[in-house]
Amino acid sequence: MQPSLIAIPSFIALLIKCYFLFFVAIKQKNDFKQLLIILVTLLCLLNFAEFLTFTQIGQNLAMLKIYYVLAILSLILLTVLVLVVTKVNIVAVNLLHSFGIVISVLIVFTDFIIADSKMLHSTITRIPGEFYFLFQMFSIIELITCIYIICKKTFSYSEKDNIIRARSSIILISMLPLLISVLTVIFLMALGVKVNAVVIVPITTTIFLAGCIYACSNNKIFDFSILIPGTLSWSRKNNLFFFLYAGEEKINLQDQLLRLEKLYIEEAMKKNGGKISKAADALGYTPGKLDYRLKSIHQMDDK
Length: 303
Hints:
This protein is mainly alpha-helical. The chain has two domains: 3-226, Rhopdopsin 7-helix transmembrane proteins (Up-down Bundle), CATH 1.20.1070; 246-302, Arc Repressor Mutant, subunit A. 70% of the residues lie in helices and 4% in strands.
């Protein structure tokens, strides 16, 4: 296969990322704009460095080291964006980022991480150094940390997290192809398989960027958590479908609404350890109103 054909996915992904950068710079107006611009810029540079490895200019060890450093910085900024979007503060993440910076320094000034480069499928790939596993470990931990934070918010049952849950669900779905591709490449490398990620990674990072930009947009966004089993939106959808399509020719709407309210109240009480004040806050009720509704539900059950 000709090098130009292998480079096509990387080139197309680079063009799309450049458009994303222009779009964010012009259209984005909220607090996420600065972070998005930096993240998209880093991924554009990463994609460009990768594309250069298909050419005579980029087929050298220096370009390969630049590529790896950009990859580390992109992972760090990805985590920062996830923390900002989800409004989560994890102090230990700063230590992980510091670890990434140390690895970047080792890549640039030593051969501990990247010992040398070699040709593979019309481009170059790394010859791992003695401590190359540190880069792999950092990448895995960084991605899993992001997934953990996003899942924590996607599966949140707090009414106050509706917008965060919607944004997290979009980022989660768009990040899955990237996570799968990176873990697959690392796994194959660990088995000794000669693999180069120059085709799949540009595509998966582009999909992820599209999800991030949509999740951080100023417009009303679709809550994709409605498609994910176990989330609040999914439970609401299925409870509603159950009540509306239970096979009955006629339904008593008042009774069905009471049953639906009962499900939400029971779930809120369960999530908050049976404490009426906390459950009431989660449901948007006063403690007095929740206590009254509990008595009404009990009376309905006794009938």
